[in-house]
Each structure stands twice: as structure tokens, then as C-alpha cells.
Amino acid sequence: MSGSSNPFDSGEAEAAAYDAWYDAPSGRSVLEREQRCVIPLLEGAARPWLDLGTGSGRFGAAAGAELGLDPALALLRIAARRIPSVVRGAAEALPFRAASLGAVLCVAAFEFLPDADCALREIARALRPGGRFVLGFFPRDSAWATFYEQEGRDPASLFHGARFCSLEEWQQRAVAAGLTPGPVRSTLFEAPGEPPSPRVVAGAEPGASFVATTLVKTGEDEGRHR
Ligand SMILES: C[S@@+](CC[C@H](N)C(=O)[O-])C[C@H]1O[C@@H](n2cnc3c(N)ncnc32)[C@H](O)[C@@H]1O
Predict the structure, then answer these.
(1) Ligand 1 pocket: which of 5, 8, 159 to mutate (most atoms <8 Å of CB)?
(2) Domain 12-217 fold
(3) For 106, which of 52, 88, 139, 187 could close a Cys bridge (C-beta 3.0–4.6 Å)?
(4) Pocket lining: 107 vs ligand 1, CB cutoff 6 Å
């Protein structure tokens, strides 16, 4: 979608720089803790798993997702080296049949969606009954969300236009789309630039700048596999 309003949909050099951030010591530490936060919430979920807003595919690959989706072509080319099957597309119009996915993982992408409520309805449609949506995000008013909001005042920043929500807000919006809140995990207990705290904990803990919440597709035929 070149020419779109998605700031991540740019050139090869920008995509490589985005991906390389995770190889620097600070990025590696963030990646490792966010993965430890998110991946346990997927354990035991039916297959296949989609990494939605996969970017360069770091989370989907670590989780063992079979599928990745993103509108940003250059990032998706990097993801294709890590995830078995990738598709260019948008969360608001998922190219998957109803009740065909066992789990959807999404890390640090819901903040950037033009229509997050539409995306939640799409995820609820594509998940099979009993399937899980695991959403990793930066809670509004957390140290990192506040830092990114300030950075986003610069129109050239990737965070320009990013919208941050609290855990309660995301859960309420997911309930409206037909999903039921489940287990939560939390990490990133230091402010940006401070020495990293290794803590990754179960539950929603005050002071966390990264939270992952499970949102389950329930329904009258829950548990039946199509
Ligand atoms: C901060 S990056 C996160 C990428 C990856 N999940 C990670 O954590 O490294 C945000 C991603 O959201 C993607 N994105 C933006 N709009 C989207 C949409 N409508 N549907 C799906 N993904 C979208 C961007 O292209 C970008 O790859």
C-alpha cells in the first residue's frame, strides 16, 4: 500500500532499520521480555496462528505462527524469511474464512490501526469458537506510551497518529466485538532509557508499560472444531 497513510509502509532501508532495532542491546532486551509476556498466553491454542501486523515477523516467528499479515510490503518481505506464509493485507479486512484461525497474535500494532473496532470484529469472525486473540500493547499513560506520544508530536515520527488505550478500554472494545477477556501478563517496568527490569508477571500490574491480554472467541458451539 505505498502512498497509504501507514508510516511503516516505506522503503527497504527503513524496514531494515526497523528490524535492526531489535538487534541492538536495548531492543533485544525489550524483544525478549515482550516475547516472554505474550507467548505463554498462546500455549495450547488450536492452530493455525496468525501474527497480525507482523512487521518484520519477530513475534510470529518466536511464537511459531504459521501465518503473518501486514500492509507494509518491505517489512513483510523480511517477515517472509521468518514465517512460513505471509500475506499483504489489513486487519480491517482479513483474507481468512470465518472460524478458520485458532489464534491471532498482535503486538504493538493496534495502536496504529485506522479502525481498531472493525479489526476486532474481523478477528472475532476469523477465529474459531474457543480461539484466542492475544493483544500486546502499550497502555495509555504508561511511561512508554507517554514517551511515544511525545515522540509522535513530530509528524515525521512513526508514532505520529498512534492511539493508546488502557487495558480496560481494549477489553471493553473487544467485548463489543464478541470476545471475552481472559488471562493477562505484564512487563516493561522501567521508563525508556532506564536500566531494564527483567520482570515479566502474570496479571495486570500497575507500572507496566507493556501488557498482553487474552481475548477469547466464545460462542454456542465453543470447542467444536470446524
Ligand atoms: C510498531 S509495528 C509492530 C510490528 C510487529 N508486530 C513488531 O512488534 O515488531 C506496527 C505494525 O502495524 C502495521 N499496521 C499498520 N496498519 C495496519 C493495518 N491496518 N492492519 C494490519 N497491520 C497494520 C504496520 O505496518 C506495522 O508493521
Answers:
(1) 8
(2) Rossmann fold (3.40.50)
(3) 52
(4) yes
| pLDDT single digits (tens) 31-41 | 999 999 999 99
Assessment of whether the complete model's pTM goes beyond 0.90? yes
Q: Is 111 in the pocket of ligand 1 (CB under 6 A)?
A: no
Kindly state if the Cβ of 63 falls inside 6 Å of ligand 1.
no
User: What span, in angstroms and rounded, lies between the C-alpha atoms of 27 and 22?
Assistant: 4
